[in-house]
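Hi P.,

Sorry for the delay on this. The queue was packed all week, but I finally got your sequence through. Input first:
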Amino acid sequence: MTTDEDAQGRLWLADVLWRLGAVQFGDFSLGRTVRNSPVYVNAKLLISRPDALKRTLQLIADEIELGMIRRDPTFEPFDAIAGVPIGGLHLATGLALRLDKPLLYVRPPREADEVADPHIEGIYRPGERTLLVDDLAAGGGSLVDTAAALRNAGLMISDAVVLIDREQGATRRLEAMGVRLHPILSLEIMLKFLDSAGHLAEGDLDKALGYIRREGEPRSEFD
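Then the structure:
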């Protein structure tokens, strides 16, 4: 169950992203999944505000702690943290320092070595459980690729944390491989909050929600 304090923390994140100029409206095509989206969120701008980045890391740490102490835990204990390049790497680095956990990341092969397997930076032992961290999830391609590479190296992956979930298939794809996705905010909740705060221009919310619901994944009654 989400407490009022927890909800306020999440809405703080929406507000600070807006104030940083991280929420933009227009026509955006990004990565493998996002095509002609009317809204774009650049959570990487958090690195320009150390105070905001620290508080964001605390939000993630709180999410993990609460998930672990529940009667029916939603997070498995983990031995290391893996950042999904590029957007998740600064978050994973800060979280690893905050939680005193080793950091890993998957370095894709160079173009000249396309047939080679991705290389994992960091020291690890097969059988260790690793938490995935990224800034944003859309279709989940980068998260799935990272999880697969880590598993191929003998690591165990059961949970992934993202700041923003665009709800365009990532949850479904990760669930299919036995990984739970834990977003701090969904794009829809963030946009509804920003609109209620008077930040959005007329029509921006309806256009964005229409896109999310058209391109998004089915929601359960608990979402």
